[in-house]
Amino acid sequence: MKHRIIVLGAGYAGAFSAGRLARQLHPDDVEITVVNAEPDFVERLRNHQAAAGQELPRRPLSKVFAGTGIRLKVARVARLDPDRRTVHVEDSLGTDTLEYDTLLYALGSTVDDHGIPGVREHAHHVATRPAALRLRERLDELGDGGRVLVVGGNLTGIETATELAESRPGLRIALATSGELGGWLGDKARRHLLRSFERFGIEVHEHAPIGRVEASAAIAADGTVFDTDVTVWAAGFAAHPIAADSGLAVEENGQITVDRRMRSVSHPEVFAVGDSAFVIAENGKPLPMSCASAGPTSKQAIAGIVGGLTGHEVSLTKFPYIGNHISLGRKDAIFQLVDGDAQAKPGAMLGGSAAQVKTAILKTAAWSVAHPTSGLPTRRHRSATAEDRTVRTLAA
Asked: Which family is annotated (predicted)?
């Protein structure tokens, strides 16, 4: 009987991992199934562009996985039962139960409303492609003169505000943040950021945490009212609750607690990658939820799964955190490097050159996902016997 591997989620981490596993493991020994709510690979890092009205390329997962032997199931994950090693999914045809021997959990993160009243009812976000497209439709209805308030002063908020301001100059864009806008940046980068906001005409409200969202206003904790036609919530991300609800060991924020090989500490047949996993970087601090975590955590999980099945030594991947890359529209950006303590370094790459670098990074990431078997050796590893796997698992 083939070893059944299920990958939940086909974002950057999930799609990349599934393709590499299919390349490295022999098809006579394993059966790989990818479960994803959408039929396409979505470049989540570009959702703010879609919201602004830009058309992004479609990348159907059926084409991405063509020729790999991977089975694609377009469905929503409803429930996970790690004790019985089953996944319950839902699609337009109904419900289904999938069984696995190894699970790769890559469901990523979702918007974090922080329990603020009215966010779910009245605010838009760009955490998913459907949400970004709904925001686009709403902005189309506004026309020139519409008022948009972006809530959140970190990367997503900054990128969303500047993208909307550049693509839709007729809108009146404002941003509210609980602290200083770009306060974590070095002085040089922060000055550039503030000049960019001034150039775009974006109104900034610092130290203005939002305590309630209504249909036509956002109210700060101190009672200040920001009248708006559209509120865009970009105040952070949270792990999907499915992991915590399943009984997997998780951290306080819902991320799955894993060992150095990306295995769940409570259920070692479950691996977690990307935003779903709680990982300590080389600097001793948790990796932030970002695309930067997708690559190294995926490589580590792949090595762990392949090594466990084939008997190959499991190499350890480093988890570096080198900085923040922030787009400011299509022609401007900031690349802020950080030191070993995750503090901003004095220097930064700014302007058009930083924008070109970020564009190159996005294209490379998308190409890697769309070509999962490129750049790897043609030989696929055969699985060891079940007895050998048991011995290695007990010794690990």
From this structure: Belongs to the NADH dehydrogenase family.
